[in-house]
Specification:
The chain is mainly beta. The protein has a 17-stranded antiparallel sheet that branches. It has a 3-stranded mixed sheet with strand order 3-5-4. It has a two-stranded antiparallel sheet with strand order 1-2. The protein is globular, with a radius of gyration of 26 Å. It has helices spanning about 50-55, 70-80, 345-350; strands at about 10-20, 25-30, 35-45, 90-95, 100-105, 115-125, 130-140, 160-165, 170-180, 190-200, 210-225, 230-245, 255-270, 280-290, 300-310, 315-325, 340, 355-360, 375, 380, 385-395, 395-400, 405-415, 430-440, 445-450, 465-470. The longest helix has 14 residues, at about 70-80.
């Protein structure tokens, strides 16, 4: 307590006396001394990251009252940037007792590479075929230094991603996104994204040739909040999507457009995004596609929560849950898209871009393997869903060049057609093992091998089978 309210130089001397045979009297003799302040904040070890990117993440400022918790919070913020090795962030103090000041020194060790190139392949099952995906992420980009640094301008903490994915079944996807975490020098992020997807394949249920395509463009803005505490953030995004989807069970042959506005309130206290050992993360999102002229309409409410806690040493236990509800403002211009389907990973699900895909290990996902309500023999997607998951993991290798994190998992979830059919205890269950591999050049690769206890009616996904899934990206 004294370390967090400025008493850097205080002293406590306990005086312990034995009373009778089974008791102690403890007196604490406290010398408070005077409150100390930070004099300088010094940063060492950054060779590629600009100093202003580091300083804006710190919670210690010259002239502020000394606070040990603010130093530790600064270490946490630096570790979550992804530019420095968490083990290589070492704060130090150089204090002046006479003047009651202290210099705080952050000694940093930058990671070998902030950017990564993702290349992956897989098999998506019947009607999809071979999946090939390539994506390059510049996680410490500097658009201001274009033409000044070669080959890649770095140092300003901006994020630029370029991606392309193709499959043997005729799927193509092209994407571009950019994010400035501090727009015009203020703690407000501004992002832009655009993508185009085209998919030609034979429909598994209607036995017809389909051509699906969607063009999307969006902007987003986020800011950190100071209430209820400064782990909270608020994000606003606006997205326009234009669909052209063929299929006998879509109105107007699937040609429609939506303009969605979403608002998210989130709290994130994870100590590490790749492999958190403590902290929690929760979010509440309201997504609206208003009933404007010429546009389809719907609304969604989404809730997500996860909690991480250390068990023994590096062994970490994680549990979490998700809930979702979708509805419409009226009976006209209802969007047939964005319903909830569970199963697979984001890599397998990218072809099913007309759906809101919820990943669930142990189930393949995709057009013919997703958990969904069926109407007249066709998977229509749920208007409600629930998901629960638990995980136990232990990093067997954790250094700058590679991380190997094996884990055990148990998951369950289901998709429901409205409140009348909603039953949070009627879920599809799975359990299994997995391995996450982090390489600076590839990012996080997640491999899982899950055993499902329940099958999916009207599909070939049966109970008592194992499912191997492959994904790129951290689940946290």
């Amino acid at each position: 307590m004294y370390n967090d309210i400025g008493y850097l130089f205080f002293q406590i001397q306990p005086d312990i006396k034995v009373v009778h045979k089974d008791s102690l009297d403890i007196d604490f003799h406290i010398t408070e001394d005077k409150i100390a302040t930070f004099r300088k904040v010094i940063i060492n070890g950054n060779t590629r990251t600009n100093e202003n990117v580091i300083r804006r993440s710190l919670r210690t400022y010259p002239g502020d009252t000394y606070s040990r918790s603010n130093i530790m919070r600064s270490v946490r913020e630096l570790s979550t940037l992804g530019y420095f090795s968490p083990k290589g962030i070492n704060p130090d103090l150089n204090y002046d007792y006479q003047n009651k000041t202290a210099d705080v020194i952050y000694n940093l060790k930058e990671t070998t590479g902030n950017d990564n190139f993702e290349f992956s392949g897989g098999f998506g099952g019947q009607g999809i075929g071979l999946i090939l995906s390539a994506k390059i992420n510049f996680n410490n980009f500097s658009i201001q230094n274009l033409g000044k640094q070669w080959p890649i301008p770095t140092g300003d903490g901006q994020k630029l991603s370029l991606g392309v994915q193709v499959t043997g079944g005729g799927y193509q996807n092209y994407s571009l996104s950019f994010n400035e975490p501090w727009f015009r020098g203020r703690p407000v992020s501004l992002g832009f994204n655009t993508s185009y997807s085209l998919y030609k394949y034979n429909d598994y249920y209607t036995n017809t040739r389909r051509r699906d395509e969607v063009f999307a463009v969006g902007v987003s803005s986020a800011r950190q909040l100071n209430w209820p505490d400064d782990y909270f953030s608020q994000t606003t995004s606006v997205q326009f999507q234009k669909y052209n989807v063929q299929g006998s069970y879509y109105n107007d042959n699937g040609k429609l457009s939506t303009l969605t506005i979403s608002e998210t309130i989130a709290r994130n206290s994870l100590d590490n995004y790749l492999n958190p050992s403590r902290g929690s993360k929760l979010s509440l999102t309201a997504e609206l596609a208003p009933p404007l002229a010429g546009l389809s309409q719907y609304y969604k409410i989404l809730f997500k929560y996860q909690h991480h806690m250390p068990v023994v040493g590096k062994l970490t236990f994680t549990n979490g849950m998700e809930l979702g509800h979708m509805g419409w403002f009226g009976s006209k211009n209802q969007s047939p898209f964005e319903r909830f389907f569970l199963g697979g990973t984001p890599l397998q699900q990218q072809q099913t871009f007309t759906r809101d895909n919820i990943d669930l290990r142990g189930y393949p996902g995709g057009y013919s393997g997703s958990i969904s309500p069926f109407v007249n023999g066709l998977p229509v997607g749920g208007t409600m869903y629930v998901k629960y998951y638990s995980e136990m993991r232990y990093p067997v290798v954790s250094n700058e060049s590679v991380q190997l994190i094996p884990y055990l998992f148990a998951e369950g979830g289901n998709s429901y057609l409205g409140f009348k059919n909603f039953d949070p205890f009627n879920i599809k269950r799975s359990t299994g093992v997995g391995l996450r591999i982090f390489l600076p050049i590839l990012g996080m690769v997640d491999l899982s091998y899950g055993y499902r206890f329940d099958g999916i009616p009207n599909t070939s996904v049966n109970a008592g089978q194992w499912e191997f899934l492959f994904n790129i990206g951290s689940p946290f």
